[in-house]
Design brief:
- The protein is an all-alpha fold and 196 residues long.
- It contains 10 helices and no strands.
- The chain is elongated.
- It comes from Paenibacillus eucommiae.
- Keywords: DNA-binding.
- InterPro entries: DNA-bd_HTH_TetR-type_CS, Homeodomain-like_sf, HTH-type_Tx_Regulator, HTH_TetR, Tet_transcr_reg_TetR-rel_C_sf, Tscrpt_reg_QacR_C.
- This is AcrR family transcriptional regulator.
Amino acid sequence: MARPAGQGEQTKKLIAAKAKALFEQKGYSAATMDEICSITGSSKGSIYYHFKNKAALFIYILELSTQEWVDKWVEIEATVHTSTEKLYKLANHFATDFQNPLLKASEEFAGSESADPEVKTRLLELSRLHYPLFQQLLKEGIEHGEFRDVPLDEFTFIVLGLLAGLGISYFDYEYEQMEELYRKAIDLLLQGVQVK
């Protein structure tokens, strides 16, 4: 008997939501398929029907998490009007993501699965999902005369690199300190690119 349309995707999302909580609690490596079966109430066969392996399940969870981040940014962006304000909000949104409980499991996963080219490719694709958001914001800022007319691709990589690089403070700073550091980084960046 065929499953109703959409039921398969709904089941995948339910499995992923429950498995995500386990990965957040135990980390990627320590979470076993037996525990995933137990916490989701699914058989291994059911999980393997939807996901090739634990790595595929984790990537799916990362995809959903990344989409949530993007959707939240769209909501935030709608509340501000200038590109300068948006840049501050985007930096703050970026910093806020360091409070995501999935972060530690993601770091562990990225290191443990580096030999699998398919996994590396998908992780790289996920890391690039932010690129168009940054590029659109900066393009609007240039077009509206808020930012100097600089090569957009370079400008995008510089801003992405700045915000991603500041992530290293995650290991030394509390969230409030990180938030302030990101704000100061945008202050300094704007000194170089803002049209006076």
